[in-house]
Write a structure and sequence with these properties.
The protein contains five helices and no strands. The chain has one domain. With 117 residues, it is mainly alpha-helical.
Amino acid sequence: MTKPEFKKVKSLLTWVKKMITLHPENYDQTNWCGTRCCIAGWIDVKVNGAEVHARHTPSEVFDNACKALGLDNSRDYAMFEAGSAGPTCFRGTAQHAEAGCAAIDNFLAEQEAEVTA
């Protein structure tokens, strides 16, 4: 990933963090559902719009999120993993949203380290 690509990715994920923080009651990273309530879903909404997103399968949501971030969709990324934001009992809470934002921050730190290496 180049520095300009990283800036675009960071901007997109900053928007996702904002949505998760503003609407923790809608955030759910506890299972793979393909909804806009998970990180990949929010990315798909931002890139394709809510109406188009609503017609996407979970697989398409993940593929679109990876494409938007310049990632290989055959890899596993901790940020997208079910449970990466804590146990199911936390879904929809500020604590769950904070954990999701932390997962995004970790991903961005890893990417930035690769770009600046």
